[in-house]
Design a protein that fits this description.
By secondary structure, the protein is α/β, with parallel strands linked by helices. The chain has helices at 4-9, 14-34, 44-59, 64-67, 73-100, 103-131, 150-161, 196-202, 217-227, 268-303, 332-336, 352-359, 367-373, 386-392, 425-441, 444-460, and strands at 141-146, 167-173, 189-191, 207-210, 233-236, 249-253, 256-260, 309-315, 321-327, 377-379, 408-410.
């Protein structure tokens, strides 16, 4: 979620942010508009231009604040730009088709999208790279951290290595002896915590991050009293709740402020767009992959008698059960067994063809039908077997929160290498950690970004 701290520390200057968000899509639309040879009269043309301008003003182009939160950021720029470009292309194609009312008009409307989408993507990538380059990036903000901890050390390391933020880290305020610090004392200590006010008076800073534990409320109060005498922005580094919020928001309910800690991300219009993306994407994939699906089904039946499709009950949205479809990769007797045991490397229950389709993820393709039905989404936390859910929900904190959205064919955890068996609790904890992070970050652009990462990994044979 976008925050004020994020905006203040951004390496991309406000002017470049506005250009990437509004200027790039306008220029791309202008170039695509030149490609239209459709005869628009003096009334229709201004109306079309006005609609395009309003659409871009409302939806904008690439959100640089959101980009700065991602890994493989330029791939996310491409995903975000593609999402926005397709939205505008659909609007323009529909308007031109209605205005013309003939086949030629439809062709011209589609031509706009053919030109606009790649132009939007390429110019967004170029503008973003230029925005974080040394000549154009924002002046570094002076940053200090109150208290040394493992969390604050990790934060500083990440902050100083991130090209999308512009910071000049000055050091830590700390009272403890260097021998008692987590890093063995190899950290820059610039003053004691009780001397913050005096130090800032001599050496002004832009941002102060407080990394004291919540139980040290009295010490936090002392720090705040000192910082109130400065012009520095103050941030608390740790969450003020024990569980990191999922789609947190502050809203007014019957006139009373309510802070939502766990909420559903894919609701309202964004959720409808996600569902439309699922329907279109899964239908297109089923049409394109129909020959492959038929061949795999025949090969499974040829290798071992029995159904080519394996069904198993999984937990879906809000923990409701549904039947998931997969190509059968094990023997019929193993699939008929009531025991749900994860397949392991060299598992004797897996057939020869089954090993190949599991490694290549082809066994998951029938879940495209689950997506069409609405049981699943193209992107989301991977669904686990019911016995595994019941086992891990008691061992991993926040495990069931991952069911706030539809399970996915691919997910944030999977593109980070967390695929296959989870034979240890640590592996499942890591998978859940990425699933919950997906819920916090979710957007339609992030879904497309994950799909692109998945395709790249499949082509590389990951």
């Amino acid at each position: 979620m976008y925050t004020q701290a994020h905006s203040e520390l951004a390496a991309i200057r406000p002017g470049m942010t506005i250009f990437i968000r509004y200027g790039v899509p306008l220029l791309a639309a202008f170039v695509a508009g030149i490609g239209l040879s459709f005869d628009l009269n003096a009334v229709v043309l201004p109306a079309l231009v006005l609609v395009v301008a309003i659409f871009i003003f409302v939806t904008g182009g690439v959100d640089t604040d959101e980009v700065a939160r991602q890994q493989s950021r330029f791939l996310y720029v491409a995903a975000s730009a593609t999402t926005k470009a397709f939205q505008l292309s659909a609007v323009v194609a529909l308007l031109v088709a209605i205005m013309g009312g003939n086949l030629e008009a439809v062709r011209e409307g589609l031509l706009f999208g053919v030109i606009y989408v790649p132009a939007m993507v390429m110019w967004s990538l170029l503008a973003t790279r230029l925005a974080i380059s040394a000549p154009l990036r924002a002046k570094p903000c002076k940053v200090v951290v109150v208290a040394v901890s493992e969390a604050s050390l990790e934060f500083v390391t990440t902050l100083t290595q991130d090209p999308f933020v512009s910071v000049d880290f000055r050091g830590f305020y700390e009272d403890r002896d260097t021998s008692r610090l987590p890093a063995g004392g190899v950290v820059p200590i610039i003053a004691r915590i009780d001397g913050i006010a005096a130090h800032i008076a001599c050496e002004p800073v832009d941002h102060v991050f407080i990394s004291l534990p919540m139980e040290a409320a009295q010490r936090i109060g002392v720090v705040m009293d000192q910082l109130l005498d400065s012009a520095a922005s103050v941030h608390y580094l740790h969450d003020f709740v024990a569980f990191k919020p999922i789609q947190e928001s502050l809203s007014w309910v019957t006139g009373i402020p309510v802070y939502t800690v766990i909420g559903r991300p894919d609701c309202g219009l964004p959720g409808a767009i996600k569902r439309g993306f699922d329907i279109f994407g899964s239908a297109l994939a089923l049409i394109a992959l129909a020959p492959l699906l038929a061949v795999v089904a025949l090969l499974i039946r040829w290798e071992s008698p029995g159904s080519a499709i394996f069904k198993q009950v999984r937990y879906g949205t809000d923990g409701r059960p549904f039947s998931i479809y997969k190509f059968r990769s094990m023997t019929v007797s193993a699939c008929a067994s009531g025991d749900v045991v994860q397949a392991t490397k060299g598992d004797a229950r897996v057939t020869r063809l089954g090993r190949f389709i599991r490694k290549s993820s082809i066994d998951e393709l029938p879940q495209l039908f689950n997506i069409l039905r609405g049981d699943m989404s193209l992107v989301g936390p991977r669904p686990h077997a019911v016995p595994h859910n019941e086992h891990y929900r008691g061992l991993i904190r926040g495990y069931m929160v991952r069911h706030k959205v539809r399970p996915g064919l691919t997910g944030w955890a999977q593109v980070h290498g967390l695929r296959g068996e989870t034979e240890t609790i640590d592996k499942m904890e890591n998978r859940v950690r990425f699933d919950l992070d997906y819920l916090r970050r979710w957007s339609v652009a992030l879904d497309l970004y994950i799909v692109l990462l998945t395709v790249r990994q499949v082509l590389r044979g990951v």
